[in-house]
Amino acid sequence: MKVLYNICSHMHIRLGYMLSLIFFVQFFVLACQQNKKEISIIWKNKQAVGISIPKPLVDDIDSASQLLQTRLANNAASILGEYNTTGEEIVFEPIVPLSRGMEYELFFRNKIIGKINIPMADASGAATLVAVYPSADTVPENLLKIYLRFSASMREGEALKHIALLDSHNDTVPGVFLDLQPELWNKERTVLTVWLDPGRIKRDLIPNQQMGNPLRQGKQYTLAVSGKWKDVQGLPLQKAYSKNFFVGGRDSQSPQPGTWVLSLPAAETKESLKGDSNEPLDYFLLLETVSIVDEKENKVTGDIKVHENETGFEFLPAQPWKPGRYKLRIASYLEDLAGNNLQRLFDREISKQPEKKEEQFFAREFIIPGTK
Amino acid sequence: MIAAIKPPATNHKAADVKSISALTFGPGGILFIGDSKSATVFAVNTKDTKKGQPAKVDIKNIDQKIAAALGTTVANITITDMAVNPISKKLYIAVQNSDGTPVLLTLDGDKLVAVSLKDLSATSVALNNAPAEDAKDQRGRPLRISSISDIGFDDGKLLVSGLSNHEFSSSFKSIPYPFTAKQDESTLEIYHGAHGKYETAAPIRTFTTAVINGKKYLVASYTCTPLVLFAMDELKPGTHVKGRTVAEMGAGNSPLDMVTLKRNNDEVLVMTNSKHPLAKVDYKNIASFEGTLTEPVKGTAGVGFTATPMTNVLQMDKLDDTQVVLMQKKENGDVDLWTANESAL
Q: Which A residues 163-202 touch B at CB under 8 Å?
């Protein structure tokens, strides 16, 4: 088999030099593929999901599934998976895809029958860190969370090895982020939510008393993300990332949608409705909590965009606005950067603030007048 | 927020599991799998119902053995949870590969065996707070994910605590099992006090249930470290339930697992932590605070707890009334699996 493989490889090389023989070579390469007796990788969505083992490598097909073993090179353990016979091959399906950059060995009756290397993924497809929220360069002292948004699916479980908060002397500030397993990723694993240790932010909890708030008012920090963080293909980020920010005062107030400045669109146009919130809010919660309903409480279809620095939203209707009464509706779980939502503060003094009546939504009416 | 519950599909396969964040056993070999990625809890019929005796386990470098059995290295896997089947006493281990593929393994003696989810039947219940129909209304809106932080089964009910990837809130659900098309589900907002001055909503990281002075309580620990008690009979749908903080576990820490073990005639709460050592709390001491249940505990520490010298316990579950199975990262970096009595902790 090895010999046959070498002839085929050799022919590939000769192809470049001997253009006059191109048709002959093509024919020969095709013949090589058809009579392939090499162990090969089965790919699906850029993952090595199986190994194809030509039947001639195994002299007892009926017992093949008991007698075949796949192992990591230099490891005696047999990899868990299934062996199924289909047509001219036996297919090994491991319970997880084979790992990039690793070598595997196949055994039949404990004798090695072949080796296979899973190549590294194409580095040009590696992920990048495309955004960090909050995106403004000033954050409140009691900032609760940070979102990191990547261009591709990332590996889970190792975030805190790659994220650091540096002070103005470039020293790492210890114990800032909460070590949470499982990490909070979106379904596609492209957005990670990182919490600053809530035990240190909440006033009067022991961690808060002992270590104080994770961020100090009036100080400058850098959020540093290492370029070694790997995506699901095992490729490190294309580059490291850093973002400088300044820490302002404590935010101890719930967002007040009643005071937001609304810019109304004209009727019969597809102009956007704009809402300026006067303060930065949670990027993802803004996207999901804001909606517009018409007089009959039907939702107006359209797209929501978040303002720069998350200080409001823009609603772009799918259809031109009809004159009439509308309501801007905001689900009460919308939070500011400190985790205060429309209903409650992140931590509230029991003696001072009686509970508000629970409302699912905040609603504010507006009218789009008819054109004259 | 009351979740929209989809009618359970009673005959589908457990192969629909997209991730395994939490495991717990229910009655008759039913394994509940908390699947954060699809915001669903699956009740998988393992058919593992042959009565077994608790056996001592001692496997060195369990992480390396799991990685080799999956054809990869330790850096490419995460052990997400483990649970002991109370009938067979078999240990089930959930692992996630770096590409996100979930794996369920069990131990046959010292040998790792794959549990083939595609061959097992299951029922399920969806936990999603944002129903898909709603999400379609407006384009470009990412769905909220309710990550499942812990699941438990008590008195015919599946208990689920969740973390949202967007808002900081407490989501706790109690769902009767077997799942039915019409779910009677409670979603609670739970508040806990800090020394009588402040109260906050926060997500529960791990919990257990216990009987204290003849009354059943939810014993919950939070991402911001307090240990809080709630009377189970106060956990009613749509209510605002206040708990009582009984201890704080310290900064930069996330509680991981909790079990209740017997010590002679008493009971002990055993709790593992991400940063801090394994801690033990005597239920006797918790019970002595019974008189001030609705008031937050005064003072800074609440009920005293014993911090043992045992650090880096990554996973823990109860083997029987007096023993636990532990997965612990040793000082030299090895991850070992072993059983221990309460007195050895």
A: 174-175, 178-182, 184-187, 189, 191, 193, 195, 197-202
Domains in chain A, CATH or no CATH each: 2-117 (2.60.40), 124-247 (2.60.40.1220), 257-368 (2.60.40.1220)
Regarding predicted confidence, which is higher, A305 or A370? A305
B127 vs B79, more confident: B79
Spatial separation of the C-alpha atoms in residues A61 and B333, rounded to whole Å: 43
Mean pLDDT of A173-197: 88
Under an 8 A CB cutoff, do B197 and A178 touch? no
| Number of separate domains in chain B | 1
B246 neighbourhood in chain A, CB within 8 Å: none
| Contact criterion met (CB < 8 Å) for B70 and A349 | no
Of A80, A206, A230, the CB nearest to B69: A80
B-interface mutation test, from A186, A205, A337, most B Cβ less than 10 A away: A205
Closest by CA to A178, choosing from A158, A197, A163, A206, is A197
Phi, then psi, of B286 in degrees rounded to 5: -65, -45
Residue B174 lies in a domain: no
Is B85 among the domain residues?
no
Q: Identify whether B104 is part of a domain.
A: no
Give residue B253's domain range.
185-310
Interface of A with B in 10-39 (CB under 8 A): none
Using a CB-CB cut-off of 8 Å, the residues of chain A touching B114 are 80-81, 95
- Specify the DSSP class assigned to residue A74: T
What residues of chain B lie within 8 A of the CB of A287, using their CB?
Answer: 140-142
Q: Give the integer Cα–Cα distance in Å for B208 and B185.
A: 19
ipTM, two decimals, is 0.87
- Listed residue (A96, A44, A45) closest to B71, CA to CA: A96
pLDDT tens, A139-169?
999 999 999 999 999 998 889 999 999 999 9
Beta-carbon separation of A202 and B76 below 8 A: no
**Strand, helix or coil for residue B15:** helix
- Closest CA relative to residue B86, chosen from B43, B54, B59: B54
Confidence of residue A70 (pLDDT cuts 50, 70, 90): very high
Which of B33, B165, B204 best probes binding to A when mutated, by most A CB atoms within 10 angstroms? B165
The DSSP result for A4-50, as a single string, is HHHHHHHHHHHHHH-GGGHHHHHHHHHHHHHT--S-EEEEETTEEEE
**Of residues A80 and B204, more confidently modeled:** A80
Contacts of A74 (CB under 8 A, 6+ apart): none
* Omega cis (within 30) before B178: yes
Alpha-carbon Rg of chain A, whole angstroms? Answer: 30
CA A68 remoteness from chain centre: 38
Q: In this structure, is residue B9 part of a structural domain?
A: no
Q: Give the closest of A70, A180, A182 to B71, CB-based.
A: A70
Residue A82 corresponds to which tokens in the numbers above? 């299934």
Residue B20 near residue B96, CB atoms below 8 Å: yes
User: Predicted confidence band at A27 (pLDDT cuts at 50, 70, 90)?
Assistant: very low
Q: Which residues contact A76 (CB under 8 A, 6 or more apart)?
A: none
Distance CA B134, CA B121 (A): 30
Residue A117 near chain B (CB below 8 Å): no
Instruction: Check whether B194 has a pLDDT greater than 80.
Output: no
